[in-house]
Amino acid sequence: MTTRIAVIGLGSIAVEHLKAYQLNPQAELVAVCDVDLERAKARGEQFGVARVTGSAEEIFSDPDVDAVSVCVPNTLHAPIAEAALRAGKDVLVEKPMTVTVPEAEALVKAVEETGKALQIGYVRRYAPNALVTKRFLDAGEFGDIYAARATLLRTAGNPGGWFGDVELSGGGPLIDLGVHIIDLCWYLMGMPKAVSASGATFAPLGARDNIQNLTRYKAASAARPNTVEDFATAQIRFEGGAVLDVATSFSLHARNEISVRIHGDKGGAEIEPELLMITERHDTLLHVQPQIDSLGFDFRIGFANQIDHFLRICRGEIPADATAEQGLEMARMLTAIYESAKSGAEVAITR
Ligand SMILES: NC(=O)c1ccc[n+]([C@@H]2O[C@H](COP(=O)([O-])OP(=O)(O)OC[C@H]3O[C@@H](n4cnc5c(N)ncnc54)[C@H](O)[C@@H]3O)[C@@H](O)[C@H]2O)c1
After folding, report:
1. Sequence-distant (≥ 6) Cβ neighbours of residue 38 within 8 angstroms
2. Cβ of 16 below 6 Å from ligand 1
3. Per-residue pLDDT for 251 more than 90?
4. Cα of 84 to ligand 1 centre, how many Å?
5. 164 and 26, same structural domain?
6. Are residues 131 and 238 in the same domain?
7. What's the CA gap between 211 and 248, in Å, rounded?
8. Where's the Gfo/Idh/MocA-like oxidoreductase N-terminal domain (predicted)?
9. 271 and 342 assigned to the same domain
10. Ligand 1 pocket, residue 221 CB under 6 Å
11. Which one of 32, 89, 91, 111 has the largest count of C-beta atoms within 10 Å of its C-beta?
12. Does ligand 1 have an atom closer than 6 angstroms to the CB of 73?
C-alpha cells in the first residue's frame, strides 16, 4: 500500500523530502504546495507532481492526500500541522515542532483527539552513526549516561531569509541548529525530564553577509532583517542529575565545528564528528571505531531513513517515535534557555 503524500513549503529542505519520497516505492507524491506559486510550479515540474497549489487548505480538504510533510518557516509549523491533523492527515513536521510551549501542548492535544500520527523531522536520529550508537546504548554498553556535550558552530552560516527574523523563526542558531544536537543527546540519554536550564545568547556579529567566497545553506525565501542571536550557549539539567551542555552559532569567530558526545558510567560515545566509542577493559582504555559507511552524519541516508520510517508510521506498522510529547519537552527546554538568557539566571522548568 502506498501513502499519498503532499509536501507543504517547497524551499530548500523540502527538496530533501521530495527526493526521498520520490525514491521510496511506498510513497506516491500527489501534491505540492507553497504560497510562492512560482516556486510551487517549479518544484512540481522538477519532481513530476501534477497537483500544484498555493493554499494549504486545499491540501487539507483533498481526500486523495493521506499524509503531509510540513517544511514551512518555524512559526507556521504549529497552525499548519494542527490543521493537517484535524483534517485527518498524518504529519511529518520539520524541527522545531513548535516555537512555544502552548503551541506544542495544542499539538499534543490534536494528536490525542484525532488519532493521527505526528512525527518530528529529527533527521539526525536516523543516520547510521546515531542508529549504531543507540543499539549499543540499548544493550547497556555505556551504562547510565550522566553527561552530554554538543556543539554545532558555524563561522558565517546564518541562512538569511526568515531564519534571521525572530518573528518567523522564533530564534537563531539555538532553535535552528541547537534543536538537532539537543534532541540527539536527549534521545540517547533516554529522554529524561528537563528540570532547569541556564543559557546565554549573544549577537555582536550579525548575519555576516559581507563574507565572500564561502558557500552557506540559504533559505529560499527573500531576505529579511536579522533579529536573532549569533551564538547561544546553555546547560540543561535533568531529573536524576544528568546534564547536557550545548553551544551553537550562526556567526562566531571560530572554526566550523560539530561535536556530539555522551558520557556514561561504563563508556562514552562521540557521535559527531566521527563515531567513536570509548571505554575501559582489563585496566586498558579502548577506543572502538565501528566500521560503517559513514562515521559522521550522512544527510542523504538520514533523510532516506527518516522518510521510510515516516511511511511505516503512516501504514500503521510502527507508532510515531519522535512524538508531539517530545516536541513539547523540546519547546520547554528551548523556552527556558531563552528566558534564562534574558534574565541572567537559571530557569526552573515546570509542567
Ligand atoms: N532537518 C534539517 O536538517 C533542516 C534543515 C534546514 C531547514 N529545516 C527546517 O525546514 C523548514 C523550512 O526551512 P527551509 O530552509 O526549507 O526554508 P525556505 O525558506 O527555504 O523554505 C520555506 C518555504 O515555505 C514557504 N511558505 C511560507 N509560508 C507558507 C505557507 N503558509 N504555506 C505554504 N508554504 C509556505 C516559503 O514560500 C518557502 O518556499 C524550517 O522549519 C527549518 O527549520 C530543517
Report:
1. none
2. no
3. yes
4. 16
5. no
6. yes
7. 19
8. 4-122
9. yes
10. yes
11. 91
12. yes
Is residue 2 a contact partner of residue 30, using CB atoms and an 8 Å limit?
Answer: no
Say what the alpha-carbon torsion angle 197, 96, 151, 300 is, to the nearest 10 degrees.
160
Q: What is the CATH number of the domain that holds 180?
A: 3.30.360.10
Nearest CA to ligand 1 atom 7: 13
* Atom of ligand 1 minimally distant from the CA of 14: 16
Which positions are annotated as active-site residues?
95
pLDDT tens, residue by residue, 147-195: 999 999 999 999 999 999 999 999 999 999 999 999 999 999 999 999 9
Which of 7, 8, 12 has the most ligand 1 atoms within 8 A of CB, as the residue to mutate?
Answer: 12
Query: Same structural domain for residues 185 and 160?
Result: yes
Q: Tell me the whole-structure pTM to 2 decimals.
A: 0.97
Classify strands 267-272 and 67-70 as parallel, antiparallel or unpaired. unpaired
Instruction: Fill in the amino acid letter for 348.
Output: A
Same domain, 276 and 151: yes
- Per-residue pLDDT tens over the stretch 288-335: 999 999 999 999 999 999 999 999 999 999 999 999 999 999 999 999
* Residue 231, number of CB atoms within 10 A of its CB: 23
Using CA positions, which residue lies closest to atom 38 of ligand 1?
Answer: 11
Give the count of domains, the chain. 2
Range of the domain at 267: 125-297+329-348
CATH code (residue 116): 3.40.50.720
Write out the E strands in 39-117: 51-53, 67-70, 90-94
Pocket test for ligand 1, best of 8, 13, 57, 99 (most atoms within 8 A of CB): 13
60 ligand 1 Cβ < 6 A: no
**222 CA to centre of ligand 1 in angstroms:** 12
Looking at the structure, tell me whether residues 63 and 188 fall in a common domain. Answer: no
Both 342 and 206 in one domain: the answer is yes
- Rounded to the nearest angstrom, the distance between the alpha carbon of 292 and the centre of ligand 1 is 31
Q: Is 84 in the pocket of ligand 1 (CB under 6 A)?
A: no
